[in-house]
Write a structure and sequence with these properties.
By secondary structure, this protein is an alpha+beta fold. The chain is built from 18 helices and 22 strands. Helix 14 crosses helix 17.
């Protein structure tokens, strides 16, 4: 080969090498770009995984953990290396660990998705429920390349489900303890649950009672009406109430009142029906006997001022007893109608009368109370009750009773007047104590004004005599101060009671009078009153009205202390007993809110009160009254229970010729 040829061949080889180097350089740049793009995609994927609000783990086809997101690390409070060995750690609750491992192995072996519920240990040691969902990710050939496992926190749902199950258990327990026959229906009206009492009455299991419309549970004569009413209620969602005969386990039918109420969710959708079956067979039989034996009760009705009636409102047909005619002063030979009764109703009571008639026209049982004005102008108070006993031609037939309660109303009004008079005495005494206290408080600064004015006058007298105007001002200050003091003195004298009206009295009797006056108020407040009066209680000497004022104040305070109590009975105990020495004690014990230790020393101070609308005068006045009777009034918390006890003692009646002491000269 010539030198030129060799040179040409070498040049071609160099050219090839340069071209190859350029290709290699380009491929290397492309590879670096691909690696960088892959790194960016992995960072983006990791960022996406970390931003998902749930725990995520990526595993190999064999189940080895490759990746966990930030949420997993933060929840468990462990490193990635620690979480990789989760099988050998306490990350899963010991009770759930075998089941969780078995389900994972089965999914890895079969390729089926994983779905499991298990408890995971939080970094603070508390276990929470999670739903673990594992999905296999396959390549283009269908082989599993990875497992993506999602951990969803379902702890609140599990707790809610457990709470729901607990409520259902409690509901079932309550249903089984209800003294009646109870059934729970689905929204469509199918029997879902029955209590033990219903099972025992019908002698059938739940499955049999689901077919109540076809298996003879309801009497054949009542079934068409019952099905119609029941279907209408389920369709409209309105409560139902009807009477029907239900077959007992021995084949005997008894009358029941069947009431169904829908239970709705927050969206007003019916979720269940609750049905109560009340045995009214005895009542139905009694009502029939009552109709048959109506005439035999005439004498009893006259003695009790009670009349009976059988009424068909829709037909305006009324069958009254003789006593009912006598109460309304209608001629028994004339026909009674709704309009005739309406004509004698007191004008102020017409709205309530019309409401009663409207409810009765709907077939509802009614209670009523109103006044009537008879033809001779007499006003009577009438109250009564009427119940639907059967339906005649589809119309409700009522049996009822009405009573002339005018005498009891008059007695009640007299009792209310007596209560008002006693309350008036208490108010007057309170005003007396209030005015005297204000006079005492205002009189002190007025005395200071007088003293200061006298001092000013003496000081001004020592100054040069050209300040006569200032001296005259001081004289006017003294004059006005004296005038104000005189006004306060007269005001105190006006309201101050100088002496008692002393008498020999029985503390038991006086206490019973106050209890009688307070009984209506106590009943309105649902107070359970218990009285324990000593049989051998000696007589005392005192002012009956003022002592009864103290008793009334203690009773009202005890009642007020229990008005807001709903978690325990409102018991009130009034007790009289002999005290040590020649003394008689009265105690009022309540189960109310009790006494705060820091208020014990202030209870009897004027104007101190624990009531939002109180004046703080009652206990102060009561203490003054008891002390004026040479006694003592005090309060203390109840031992071993809620509430407080207020007590006072006063000396018993003195024996001998000086049995009645001289009247006190000081005002309470």
């Amino acid at each position: 080969m010539s030198i030129d040829a060799a040179r040409e061949s070498a040049a071609e080889e160099v050219t090839r090498l340069i071209a190859a180097n350029e290709r290699l350089t380009n491929e290397l740049a492309q590879h670096q770009q691909a690696v960088e793009a892959l790194r960016q995609r992995e960072q983006e994927s990791r960022s996406i995984i970390d931003s998902i609000p749930a725990g995520i783990a990526l595993m190999t086809p064999e189940g080895a953990v490759e990746v966990v997101n930030r949420q997993m690390l933060e929840y468990f409070g462990r490193t990635f290396d620690e979480l990789k060995d989760w099988v050998t750690t306490d990350a899963i609750h010991p009770e759930d660990h075998p089941r969780a491992l078995e389900r994972l192995r089965r999914s890895l072996a079969t390729g089926d998705r994983l779905d499991s519920e298990q408890r995971h240990r939080h970094f603070d040691g508390v276990f929470r429920w999670f739903r673990v969902l594992g999905v296999p990710l396959r390549d283009s050939n269908g082989r599993i390349a990875r497992w993506c496992v999602l951990h969803i926190d379902i702890d609140e749902r599990k707790r809610a489900e457990e709470a729901l199950r607990e409520r259902e258990r409690e509901s079932r327990l309550i249903v089984d303890t209800v003294p009646g026959l109870v059934a729970i229906l689905t929204p469509a009206g199918d029997v879902d649950v029955v209590n033990q009492q219903l099972v025992e009455y019908c002698g059938q299991p739940l499955e049999a009672m689901k077919a109540w419309g076809t298996n003879g549970t309801v009497h054949a004569e009542d079934l068409p009406r019952v099905v119609e009413l029941f279907t209408q209620a389920i369709t409209t969602g309105e409560p139902y109430d009807f009477e029907a005969r239900i077959r007992r386990f021995d084949g005997v039918y008894r009358w029941f009142q069947v009431r169904g109420l829908p239970l709705r969710d927050p969206g007003e959708r019916i979720v269940r029906w609750y049905v109560l079956l009340t045995d009214i067979d005895d009542r139905k039989r009694a009502e029939v006997e009552l109709r048959r034996a109506y005439d035999s009760f005439a004498d009893a009705q006259r003695l009790s001022h009670t009349g009976s009636l059988i009424t068909d409102l829709e037909g305006d047909d009324h069958n009254w007893s003789e006593e009912a005619f006598r109460i309304f002063e209608f001629d028994p030979a004339t026909r009674v109608s709704v309009q005739r009764v309406r004509d004698v109703i007191h004008p102020d009571d017409l709205p309530s009368f019309e409401a009663v008639i409207a409810r009765g026209m709907k077939g509802e049982n009614v209670n009523f109370a109103f006044r009537i004005v008879t033809a001779r102008g007499a006003v009577k108070h009438v109250r009564g009750v009427a119940h639907v006993v059967e339906r005649v031609a589809g119309r409700p037939l009522f049996v009822g009773a009405l009573q002339d309660v005018t005498e009891s109303k008059v007695a009640e009004e007299a009792l209310n007047r007596a209560r008002s008079e006693l309350a008036h005495v208490a108010r007057v005494t309170t005003v007396s104590a209030l005015t005297a206290s204000i006079a005492h408080e205002v009189n002190q600064p007025l005395s200071g004004i007088i003293t200061n004015a006298g001092t000013c006058l003496r000081m001004l007298a020592a100054d040069p005599p050209d300040i006569e105007g200032a001296r005259e001002t001081a004289r006017r200050t003294m004059r006005d101060g004296n005038r104000a003091a005189d006004v306060i003195t007269r005001l105190r004298a006006l309201f101050t009671k100088k002496d008692f009206t002393l008498e020999r009295l029985d503390l038991n009797e006086a206490t019973r009078e106050v209890v009688a006056l307070s009984l209506s108020e106590l009943q309105r407040n649902r107070i359970v009153l218990q009285s324990e009066f000593a049989n051998d209680l000696p007589m005392v000497i005192g002012d009956r009205i003022q002592l009864q004022q103290v008793m009334l104040n203690l009773l009202r305070n005890a009642s007020d202390a229990m008005v807001g109590i709903d978690d325990r009975p409102r018991h009130l105990l009034v007790r009289t007993e002999r005290d040590e020495g020649d003394r008689v004690r009265l105690t009022v014990r309540d189960a109310g809110v009790g006494l705060e230790p820091q208020s014990m020393n202030k209870l009897f101070d004027a104007f101190y009160t624990t009531k939002a609308d109180g004046m703080g005068i009652g206990l102060s006045v009561s203490r003054s009254i008891i002390e004026s009777h040479h006694g003592r009034l005090w309060a203390e918390p109840n031992d071993g229970g809620p509430g407080a006890t207020f007590s006072f003692w006063i000396p018993r009646e003195a024996q001998g010729p000086d049995a009645i002491p001289a009247a006190s000269s000081s005002s309470p």
